[in-house]
Specification:
The protein has about 900 residues and is an alpha+beta fold. Helices cover about 25% and strands about 25% of the residues. The protein is globular, with a radius of gyration of 28 Å.
Length: about 900
């Protein structure tokens, strides 16, 4: 599959030098780009400036940026200066360009762009705080009704890019769209993984109007980072992809975007069917009137230092707890820090949120209690006394238990596929679903979508199985048992022969010569590489398919082991043994891809731990030895999270857990820094905790395009290492906030009736769920193994709960869990991690003075006569060596066995 993907990527993204140059038609997009006529004028030289933070190079002809290098790291360039030669023709945006949509007298909107037909600009006199200035008239159409001047200047030692627009006509001019292209070096083309981490950046928006900003972080997560902040009245209203830039977009290039100050002209045209993040605005210039817009370029430390930099530059700072995805039963908090007081708070839609002023633990902060009322997106608009307006984007969802219940019901009903005559042996199963057509997907020219394997096809049954780990349902488990016995075992996974336990790439394939007439739909184009023939579909050489199967076996093992009569078709050791053999089959039958970290690969560590607990010593030693070989390989790499892609955000999960397990702590820390670099924390449910993904709409989505994906499976999977790292370092509240944003972000896209999409579309002309279920299940694995309540105390924000509602009662802190599972809690002040393999927590309280923990467990259920508690202490923060239950309880397989009664059961844990 890798070769075929490379061929496709070469066609859509381009790899210079991969194929010999023969004809123009055979050249890669990058080769064709290099042959375009240069108009930027870079060959005429650059002008260099040194500011307190940056070494700035401007192309003399255009006065756009040729390089923006931090003084502290002069070998690094935030902009794509290394590709300026190939990106020098018309239409190529550079930092310093401007896009406008204008109209006069209520006429039609007309587009103007400084990059469209590049001509040398007229330099203006500089001096004082102005480094360089230019009249941009020459590089804009002569019909433009405004004069545009651009200034590169210093304000309080901060580099500023400013534009001045003057109406040069006798009629009023409306600015319906004003976009400042944000051109930073996210071009990975031709880079090795090491080179990309050394020289490239990713960036994400906070479209918070006057409080908005763009954060630009290095792939390595090392300092410095860059903040783009408003200068003067330059709100960040929308974030628009620059799709007209001819730089080839693909897996090596996500594309460039622009900071939109005004967006009314787009809202009336391309975006008229969407609900934008902010109310679209415009500005009117009277004859002779001028208006100034600008951004500041601020250097700061690593990703964790961004909020401190915002505060230092007197920008509004918002911290939402537990984040900006609000289950309706959660009592959330919002903390604001700014030099001016809050004048008013407005909610849109009006009934979406309940917001009440609250007492802040620290005088630097203003606090609000926030409650989600109406399901769906909600915008909170905060107006400060100095007139600054800040918007915060929330998503209100049902209580977690209801969300997960609905998800499970949808999977095992609407997506439950039964067809005894299915040619491809897919029945019974949970199959992919098209939510726009309201029908199951039994054919697709991407074989895996209809083939129950690969991420995009296994997503349904994987999600349905992982759901049982969170909220087991006996009826649903019966269906999944039939799926395992009739479809997974023997079809998706080989059940006999010398390749036993191998996992096929797809059950569906395109082989019309072998099939009866009418097997394949005439409405689908099967003349594509992704419509695999039978031989390709039956290949077992793609390692990424194995964790899905291993996870299914492992969940059924857990259900069979810790519940009564929940699983009936096989014993617990049958499932655990199969999970073990699946892991081993991966390294045996798919060794090439197994060198990389796998999405959901952390399940192999969970399997290893259970093998040890069950006394299956031989299997445990065998699995551990194989996993150590992989970890040793990673330990020798500078950045050990490669993939079948040139860059990816999927391998970090497994690389981290095994690196830490085998003592390669330095590589675990490298991995955490990289995750934080591409996973922002911003006051928006869409971007908070959203690990970067931008090409999987091609492989798992219905609307197929390169696009920053909102809460694709990377969010929950990357939260696994972040939460584990937090449990080791419980004073790192930033880590917890980012991680929990990913956990809740992952379920934020589930619809009211339980459909879970591949991801949410970020382009402002869409802003809605994708129509296909796709690979959602991979992310839900992350939610399922992450589902827990976190209790912590912060010096400035006080006691906080993530996944629960907290009350302070003298020396005790009490929390009622609100997670769907209610089976795990982490007490940060004690470094204490409590997890139940069976049994649910009704309430947990912590005595601040004595350290005693009291847990109220729900009563027994038909399938759950006992609770099984594992006590771990990954962080030693109090000097206490551990905890034990008060009373007489037995322990087995590392779990304390707590007999449950008909009513609630009180369990006291005391430090020892």
């Amino acid at each position: 599959m890798l070769l075929k993907r490379i061929l496709v990527f070469a066609a859509c993204a381009g790899f210079i030098g991969m194929f010999p140059v023969a004809t123009v038609a055979q050249q890669s997009p990058w080769q064709r780009l290099a042959q375009r006529s240069a108009t930027l004028g870079w060959e005429q030289g650059v002008t260099e400036f040194k500011t307190p933070s940056f070494l700035l190079s401007l192309v003399k002809s255009s006065q756009t940026v040729a390089a923006l290098k931090p003084v502290m790291l002069p070998g690094f360039d935030f902009t794509p200066g290394d590709s300026i030669k190939v990106r020098s023709s018309n239409g190529m945006y550079h930092l310093g360009d401007l896009n406008l949509r204008l109209r006069s007298g209520g006429g039609d909107w007309i587009n103007y762009a400084t990059a469209a037909d590049r001509k040398p600009v007229q330099a203006l006199a500089a001096g004082g705080n102005v480094l360089a200035a230019a009249d941009l008239s020459a590089t804009l159409p002569g019909s433009i009704p405004v004069q545009v001047k651009r200034y590169w200047q210093l304000e309080n030692n901060v580099l500023v890019l400013r534009f001045e627009l003057t109406n040069k006509t006798n009629a009023t001019v409306e600015i319906g769209a004003l976009g400042i292209p944000m051109i930073f070096n996210n071009l990975l083309e031709g880079k090795s993984l090491e080179q990309a981490h050394a020289s490239n950046v990713f960036y994400d928006p906070y479209t918070g109007r006057d409080a908005g900003y763009l954060q630009v972080t290095r792939l390595s997560g090392e300092k410095p980072s860059l903040l783009v902040l408003p200068f003067g009245k330059t709100p960040f209203e929308a974030y628009n992809p620059l799709l007209d830039d001819p730089t080839p977009r693909g897996i090596v290039f996500e594309g460039f975007y622009e900071w939109m100050v005004h967006s009314k002209a787009y809202a009336e045209t391309e975006w008229k069917k969407t609900n934008p993040w902010n109310e679209p605005s415009s500005a009117v210039l009277k004859p002779g009137e001028s208006r100034s817009y600008g951004v500041q370029l601020v250097l700061c430390g690593g990703p964790k230092d961004i909020e401190a930099a915002l505060a230092a530059h007197q920008r509004p700072l918002a911290v939402g707890i537990p984040g900006y995805v609000l289950p309706q039963d959660v009592n959330a908090r919002l903390f604001l820090q700014y030099k001016a007081r809050v004048r008013s708070v407005e909610v849109s839609p009006a009934n979406a949120l309940q917001v009440k002023a609250a007492k802040a633990p620290h005088r630097q902060w203003t606090a609000f209690d926030v409650k989600g009322i109406a399901w769906g997106r909600a915008r909170l608009t905060v107006t400060y006394e100095d007139g600054l307006v800040q918007t915060i984007q929330y998503k209100v969802i049902k209580p977690e238990k209801e969300v997960i219940r609905d998800y499970g019901n949808f999977l095992t009903n609407q997506q439950w596929y039964v067809n005894n005559n299915d040619t491809f042996h897919r029945s019974p199963s949970v199959i992919s679903y098209d939510n726009e057509k309201k029908q199951q997907v039994t054919q697709d020219n991407r074989a895996w979508i209809a083939g129950l394997s690969d991420e995009g096809g296994a997503g349904g049954w994987l999600g349905a199985t992982m759901k049982q780990l969170v909220l087991p349902d006996k009826t649903q488990v019966r269906k999944l048992e039939s799926f395992v016995d009739q479809t997974l075992w023997g079809h998706i996974q080989l059940s006999s022969g010398d390749k036993k336990y191998g996992v096929r790439k797809s059950l569906f394939y395109y082989e019309p010569a072998l099939m009866p007439p009418g097997t394949y739909s005439a409405d689908i184009n099967f003349k594509t590489w992704s419509a695999w023939p039978r031989k390709e579909a039956e290949s077992i050489e793609r390692s990424y398919n194995y964790p899905h199967v291993a996870a299914a076996h492992w969940v059924l093992y857990r259900l069979a082991k810790y519940h009564t009569q929940m699983v009936t078709n096989h014993s617990w050791n049958w499932y655990l043994s199969n999970a073990f053999h699946t892991a081993m089959a991966m390294v045996e039958h798919a060794p090439y891809y197994a060198q990389f970290g796998q999405m959901e690969g952390s399940v192999f560590l969970l399997i290893l731990k259970d093998l040890k607990a069950e006394g299956m010593t031989k299997e445990a030693e065998t699995l551990e030895a194989e996993m150590k070989k992989r970890a040793i390989h990673w330990s020798k790499l500078e950045y050990p999270f490669g993939s079948e892609m040139p860059w990816d955000s999927t391998g970090q999960e497994e690389v981290y857990v095994w690196s830490l397990f085998f003592g390669f702590v330095d590589k675990a820390e490298v991995t955490i820094k990289a995750i934080l670099a591409y996973t922002p924390s911003v006051p928006s449910w869409a971007y908070n905790g959203n690990a970067r993904r931008y090409w999987d709409f091609l492989y798992g989505g219905k609307l197929s395009r390169i696009e920053r994906m909102i809460h694709h499976y990377g969010s929950e999977l990357n939260a696994i290492p972040l939460l584990q790292e937090y449990r080791r370092k419980p004073n790192d509240l930033y880590m917890l906030r980012v991680a929990y944003g990913g956990v809740l972000g992952g379920i934020s896209t589930i619809t009211e009736d339980g459909f879970a999409p591949c991801a949410f579309h970020s382009f402002p002309n869409t802003l809605e769920n994708d129509g296909l279920s796709g690979d959602y299940g991979s992310g839900f694995y992350g939610y399922a193994v992450n589902s827990a309540t976190y209790i912590t105390q912060n010096a400035e924000l006080g006691w906080l709960a993530f996944g629960g509602n907290l009350k302070e009662n003298k020396d005790r802190v009490e929390v009622t869990p609100t997670t769907a599972s209610r089976n795990a809690v982490y007490l940060a002040p004690a470094g204490l991690w409590l997890s139940f393999a069976a049994g649910t927590i009704n309430n947990v309280s912590y005595n601040v003075k004595s350290g005693e923990v009291t847990i109220i467990l729900d009563g027994a259920a038909d399938t759950t006569p006992n609770a099984y508690l594992k006590i771990e202490q990954p962080a030693s923060v109090t000097g206490r060596t551990g905890y034990e239950p008060a009373g007489k309880y037995s322990i087995k397989n590392g779990n304390w066995i707590i007999p449950l009664t008909k009513g609630a059961v009180k369990l006291v844990l005391r430090p020892v």
